[in-house]
Write a structure and sequence with these properties.
Helix content is 39%, strand content 12%. It is built from 13 helices and ten strands. The strands form four sheets. Strands 1-4-5 form a three-stranded parallel beta sheet. A three-stranded parallel beta sheet has the order 6-9-10, covered by helices on one side. It has a two-stranded parallel sheet with strand order 2-3. Helix 4 links the parallel strand 4 and strand 5. It is globular and about 60 Å long.
């Protein structure tokens, strides 16, 4: 994809790219809502950058809204985290230059890779590099500030069961934990209720990504969670809505929230 010059009307067609755009001062004419019912699909950590703008709000509930995007007359479409297939990429590219995923995962490629691609596309490569570097510095400062964190095994888990299993985060999505000094145990993507203790009892701290009080209460009353070693040792922590969202978004704007809030939660149970 060739972008001829700095774009002026950018559509954020994927789940999280608007954070990347706003991080380098580019206010999109449209964002794609993911979850959380935030105003204009923008979470608190990015609202200052959004300012008074009122972008159109798209969604991926029935696929990418090609006709709606065309009506916005963009000069760039950013769709790194939109699960593009070849046919949809061709349709979007007929509207404006379109930035797709790099060829790995359809959704959620490593956050620095996504941010870098977005920064390049809007001619803000150096500004994005500074943003990414600032995040790395925040995480490194956490590791230096509390030596108790060194090599403590921290597991990141969803805030609710899906059927009879709970999902766990792994791969690049736990990289921020190691930057803060923790160890991230290798976990399966889904852990069945029957295997919960066998899989998680080696962790020092369990971080449950709860989005509300009901999810927290549901986990605390669950017999399988009650049987965990971390529960007995009072080494389970539950996130707030914003912290769960910040971890999920994994962006140059959301990760500073993680660096500010998560260490205190974990530190409180060590």
């Amino acid at each position: 994809t060739t972008v001829p010059g700095p774009p002026k009307r950018v559509v954020s067609a994927g789940l999280t790219e608007h954070d990347d755009l706003l991080a380098v001062g580019v206010v999109p004419v449209a964002v794609t809502n993911w979850f959380g019912d935030q105003p204009f699909g923008v979470w608190p950590w990015a609202r200052d950058e959004l300012g008074a703008a009122k972008p159109a709000v798209l969604d991926l509930n029935n696929g990418i809204q090609v006709d709606t995007i065309a009506a916005l007359k963009p000069d760039l479409i950013v769709a790194v985290n939109a699960g593009l297939d070849a046919a949809t990429y061709a349709k979007l590219s007929a509207i404006a230059p379109t930035i797709a995923q790099s060829g790995g995962e359809a959704f959620f490629e490593p956050w620095k890779q996504q941010a870098g691609a977005v920064g390049d596309a809007v001619f803000q490569t150096e500004a994005m590099a500074r943003r990414i570097g600032a995040v790395d510095e925040r995480f490194a400062a956490v590791a230096q500030a509390d030596p108790r964190f060194k090599d403590k095994r921290v597991a990141l888990l969803s805030g609710r069961f899906t059927g009879d299993a709970v999902s766990a985060m792994g791969g690049w999505r736990t990289g921020f934990l190691t930057e803060m000094g923790f160890a991230a145990p290798a976990l399966p993507n889904m852990i069945s209720r029957a295997d919960l203790s066998a899989t998680l009892d080696s962790a020092d701290v369990l971080v449950w990504l709860t989005e509300n009080d009901d999810e927290k209460a549901g986990l605390q009353s669950d017999p399988a969670v009650a049987a965990l070693r971390a529960t007995a040792l009072k080494r389970s922590v539950f996130t707030t809505t914003d912290l769960a969202g910040a971890i999920a978004y994994a962006s140059p704007l959301s990760y500073p929230v993680v660096a500010e809030q998560l260490p205190a939660l974990i530190g409180s149970v060590l």
